[in-house]
User: What shape does this take?
Amino acid sequence: MKKLDFDLKIDHEKLLFSKSSGNRFSRTFQVFYDGRRYHLRFLRFERTDPLISEKEKGIKPKRYLVGKKEYYFDNLRNIDFDKLPFKDLTQYFDIEAAIENTQT
Assistant: This one.
């Protein structure tokens, strides 16, 4: 497991959409745009579950990145989302709204 760090932020890309689900085991689907290409990112995280005795000592749960898949596309309209991970999260993505958001 990779401990979550802050390299997950993308400075040169605009975040168009983000949807997450889960708690101890969570998944996140994000769409970014850099002015030329769309960047779709699928992340899986696991959160530690400290024992009660550890919590009493002030130990907090930590989040770890356990999986990361990234895809790049020139056009959102040509994407077959059925072939991508996290269908339950991608169904909330509005392609037309995202395209309109890149033009403003």
